[in-house]
């Protein structure tokens, strides 16, 4: 009886759908990126946590993930890289392969910026426009290009780009930001078709207003209240509203979802 029990246990498939798969997450030190990293870790993934500026916060995320693993074999590492720099993006993927001795399986491009002054298009500064497009659009392009060439083929390859429901919301003050994300969505749809034969899928997740530092930046109490009032569910989104969607897209169960934009916004727009 004991032998049967052991054999049955050995035959039981893992309950962790991303066990031993390597996921690169850009912008993983805070906000939505941080929450995605923690969620994918709970699904068994090994994490490459990219950050641009805040190494201390990135290390805290890694420490939280590694707290339950063998110190000699950490499940999460941190890597500094500017996603708008092609050499640094290449290095990010190089270091990911070296750290875990395998090709990465998943890219989640969560790095993003906006102008907290929310200027009209007529008042948008050229340097601010360029900065937004460099991080949001050029960054998504460079990371997607690297992923298309270097993610595992034959199954389990996932490119997930974080867009924004503002592409549909079209609110004044978000001209450059919404345009940068609209370009990402268009690029993703074409990429999904170009990846035919690799079994790598490409999708966008487009959150609505999520209660993060990025959302609150530049907004007063009245503006926050107005956004809440515009949502049919009468609340701001939370990172936990977004992470299960990204987690699902990262697993094998999502294979038939490809070239899609999934708006996660509570009906906001």
Automatic annotation (TrEMBL):
<dbReference type="InterPro" id="IPR002347">
    <property type="entry name" value="SDR_fam"/>
</dbReference>
<dbReference type="GO" id="GO:0009807">
    <property type="term" value="P:lignan biosynthetic process"/>
</dbReference>
<dbReference type="GO" id="GO:0120529">
    <property type="term" value="F:secoisolariciresinol dehydrogenase activity"/>
</dbReference>
<comment type="similarity">
    <text>Belongs to the short-chain dehydrogenases/reductases (SDR) family.</text>
</comment>
<dbReference type="Pfam" id="PF13561">
    <property type="entry name" value="adh_short_C2"/>
</dbReference>
<dbReference type="InterPro" id="IPR020904">
    <property type="entry name" value="Sc_DH/Rdtase_CS"/>
</dbReference>
<protein>
    <recommendedName>
        <fullName>Secoisolariciresinol dehydrogenase</fullName>
        <ecNumber>1.1.1.331</ecNumber>
    </recommendedName>
</protein>
<keyword id="KW-0560">Oxidoreductase</keyword>
<dbReference type="InterPro" id="IPR036291">
    <property type="entry name" value="NAD(P)-bd_dom_sf"/>
</dbReference>
């Amino acid at each position: 009886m004991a032998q049967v029990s052991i054999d049955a246990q050995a035959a039981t498939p893992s309950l962790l759908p991303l066990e031993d798969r390597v996921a690169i997450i850009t912008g993983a030190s805070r906000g939505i990126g941080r929450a995605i990293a923690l969620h994918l870790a709970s699904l068994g993934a090994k994490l490459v946590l990219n950050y641009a500026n805040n190494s201390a916060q990135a290390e805290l995320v890694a420490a939280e993930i590694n707290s339950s693993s063998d110190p000699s074999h950490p499940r999460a590492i941190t890597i500094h890289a500017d996603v708008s720099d092609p050499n640094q993006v290449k290095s990010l993927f190089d270091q990911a392969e070296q750290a875990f001795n395998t090709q990465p399986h998943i890219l989640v491009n969560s790095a993003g910026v906006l102008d907290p002054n929310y200027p009209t298009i007529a008042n948008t500064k050229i340097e601010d426009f360029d900065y937004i497009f460099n991080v949001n659009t050029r960054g998504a392009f460079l990371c997607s290009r690297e992923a298309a060439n270097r993610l595992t083929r034959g199954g389990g390859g996932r490119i997930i780009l974080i867009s924004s429901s503002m592409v549909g919301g079209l609110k004044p003050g978000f001209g450059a930001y919404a345009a940068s994300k609209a370009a990402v969505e268009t690029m993703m749809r074409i990429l999904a078709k170009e990846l035919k034969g690799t079994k790598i899928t490409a999708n966008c997740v487009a959150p609505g207003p999520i209660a993060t530092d990025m959302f609150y930046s530049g907004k007063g109490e009245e503006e926050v209240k107005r956004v809440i009032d515009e949502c049919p569910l009468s609340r701001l989104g939370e990172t936990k509203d977004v992470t299960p969607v990204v987690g699902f897209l990262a697993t094998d169960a999502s294979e038939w979802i490809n070239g899609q934009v999934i708006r996660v916004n509570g009906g906001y727009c």
